Amino acid sequence: MTFERKAPATPAPASTSSVRGAASRAAPPLLAIVVPCFNEEDVLPATATELLALLDRLTRSSRVAPGSFVCFVDDGSTDRTWPIIETLAGARAGVSGIALSRNRGHQNALLAGLFGVDADVVVSIDADLQDDPDAIEAMLQAYAGGADIVYGVRSNRDADSWLKRTSARAFYRLLSACGVETVFDHADYRLMSRLAIGHLRAFGEVNLYVRGLVPLLGLRTATVHFVRRPRAAGSSKYPPLKMLALALEAVTSLSVVPLRWVTLTGFAIFLGSLAVSAWVLWARFATHTAVPGWASVTLPIFLLGGIQMLAIGIVGEYLGKIYIETKSRPRYFIDRVVGHPGPRAPPAASGAGEVPPGPH
Prior knowledge:
By secondary structure, the chain is α/β, with parallel strands linked by helices. The chain has helices at 16-23, 44-60, 81-91, 106-116, 135-144, 162-177, 194-200, 210-213, 240-254, 257-286, 294-327; strands at residues 3-6, 31-37, 69-74, 95-100, 121-124, 149-154, 186-193, 221-226, 334-338. It has 2 domains: 3-237 and 330-338, Spore Coat Polysaccharide Biosynthesis Protein SpsA, Chain A (Alpha-Beta Complex); 257-327.
């Protein structure tokens, strides 16, 4: 596992809260580990055991403050995930749980955990623990050194299949081509300070790609590399279709470059149409080989028709996003809370549930 620190070239002036936060880093921070869950009954007991053992080690070595905890966020699971969380929370003081009223997707469940806990630092990690939890210690070292955001980055993709490795690289290249600031080979394994989470609350959009929002915060960052482990049990919750949907969400929620591509494509086709029109007129009046009506029928149908449908589809996707954003619907509702996700944890909601804090 390697460690490197990155800092902005021109740091922003420190606010009063950031200066106070930096001054308090001499003391062990209160750590919350947020774990979004969807149908994870097979792996959840082992995950809880490993994370609690990690917290015990970090507490004994004074890396984190006593009272640090794990918060599982149930994203509307249909198996026994929530009963297992309730059992764990009842058996251990270091376990809490937040249940969403229905399935809202991994990114919303992640935000529910980040905004629902109260701690000095929050680490988000997937329930399958393929992201090595031992990297959290290096993340805490980077936080003590002044980083407000620490990215967990895979050191290699040797364990992936050829298809997954190739599609992942193509995805990151697509984001880069669209001008989206992202961290290569980083998913949602990261440490965020209280200051960083406070800044993240200011983003009120409903169409979410958290991996693209975090780099926009502009805070001091660091990177910790780790080797991804095989999944202990269960199956991946991101099959190819969901991965494609996530990629579409990432591009359309953070970039307008595809719309500009449509404009440039239309301009290029216009220039090409002028050239083809000149050729058609030349063939019609200067030669006797042109078949009457061939060019005027073939070109518009097979070329312009396809380009127009593609352009309409891209514009329609953005219009759909605008339609959803203008409704300003809450990202999620909290149905139940067990344990204590921090000193000022949100109360368990009744009826419709609790609206997440921050703008919507």
